[in-house]
Design goal:
2 copies of one chain form a homodimer.
Chain A (H helix, E strand, L loop, with lengths): L6 E5 L3 H13 L3 E5 L2 H6 L8 E6 L7 H10 L5 E6 L4 H9 L4 E4 L4 H32 L4 H10 L5 H8 L3 H14 L5 H10 L8
Parallel strand pairs in A: 1-2, 1-3, 3-4, 4-5
The structure holds a DNA duplex (30 and 30 nucleotides).
DNA sequence: TACCCTATTGGACTAAGGTCCAATTTACAC
DNA sequence: GTGTAAATTGGACCTTAGTCCAATAGGGTA
């Protein structure tokens, strides 16, 4: 059983806004951390104890909110973003949404609106986290495969028979059976069906004939 | 080989805008059709010869652009939407993007911007179409399965052995083999690996143990 | 009632997958 | 040079999967 505590980050250069938001969000039983700039947020070590979201002011001195969003896309984090802004415009909001923001709220906004956006953002983050976790676990197993085993895995998930794989690899059917057995063992799967699903989850594709 | 001609629909109540857009988009070698209202567009029989997108004015008398978008989400069409607007606001653009719009352009916009959005929209539509097509084909096969065969399919893609499936269904292993053979034949697959992939594409899930 | 579809099973095989033990070869690191 | 990991193969066996032919039984329709 893994602990999973959601957290809401706030990044805004206006301290009164930070305090107001912090009070509001804490009242909704969320853990909160505030930052006065994008740079300050980037300093923080990645949060790993649960899903997270960032309530982010679009316009700030230094790195802007939009810039920060782009930074965060690079480092693959599960933190979902909600923008708030006093002086936004349509192209800005559209760009933010295209880049995966959960919401974009012009001030003044309804408190309920923000809280509902936060809930959606946390759910999205949680979803991403779970997927990432699963993929990471599978990749750990994949990394224990030798090159030949990996190659073999790809042919197996293509649905080929051992004898066909053998001829592809230029070895005997016997050898393929051994590799295949080791693949199943290392991947901790009991059936080809499971193997196909695992492979799919971490983007391993069957070779083209 | 299937013909695939992209088309761009335009829905705007202002006829001068329609004409201007039509000229522009035709100059980019796209087939174009124009509509003076959302209702008029809904009248049109669904376009099936290729990918399509809709350049849509947000504000129109009668059904608005946003309303039309919601309508189109219901009827599952592959038509992707690009909004254009003279008097939009942020919440409107955010809502449109949340609902899957490819872009949201306030007037006046750069012609290149619109054309690039159209290209992205057509690509997206094409992608959706291809997925839908594939799913439809698979579903045709699935629909030829008898209830028992379908049940059997779900157990097979869970990776279970024939004897295990047999005990789940309360029949002999022999019977499972027969069903299973028919499933493979009807689904036109030669391996469990392929079967798993097909099932996944049309949302068939393995039963929980 | 005759007919068809579905579901079920048996017999008799054939082929494919998987495992245990053992051995050889090669490449690369210490 | 010795050791280790990877790749390869053989033999012997057992388990699964898949197929052909044949047969029975129940439900529903023309």
């Amino acid at each position: 059983m893994k602990i999973s505590i959601p957290i809401v980050f706030i990044a805004d250069d206006d301290s009164s806004v930070r305090k107001g938001l912090e009070r509001l969000i804490k009242s909704a039983e969320f853990k909160v951390e505030t930052f006065a700039s994008a740079e300050e947020f980037l300093q923080r070590k990645p949060y790993r104890s649960g899903p997270s979201c960032l309530v982010l002011d679009v316009r700030m001195p230094g790195l802007s909110g939009i810039d920060l969003q782009k930074e965060l896309i690079q480092k693959d984090t599960s933190t979902s973003i909600i923008f708030i802004t006093g002086h936004g415009n349509i192209p800005m909001s559209v760009e933010a949404m295209k880049n995966g923001a959960v919401d974009f709220l012009p001030k003044p906004f309804d408190e309920k609106e923000l809280l509902s956006a936060i809930i959606r953002a946390i759910e999205k983050s949680d979803h991403i986290r779970k997927n990432d976790d699963e993929r990471a676990k599978i990749n750990c197993r994949v990394n224990t495969l030798t090159p030949r085993e990996y190659e073999c895995l790809r042919w197996v998930i293509s649905g080929m028979l051992n004898k066909q794989i053998a001829s592809k690899l230029g070895v005997t059917e016997k050898t393929v059976k051994v590799h295949r057995g080791r693949v199943m063992h290392k991947m901790q799967t009991a059936s080809v069906a499971e193997l196909v699903r695992l492979a799919q989850k971490c983007g391993i594709t069957p070779p083209k004939k």
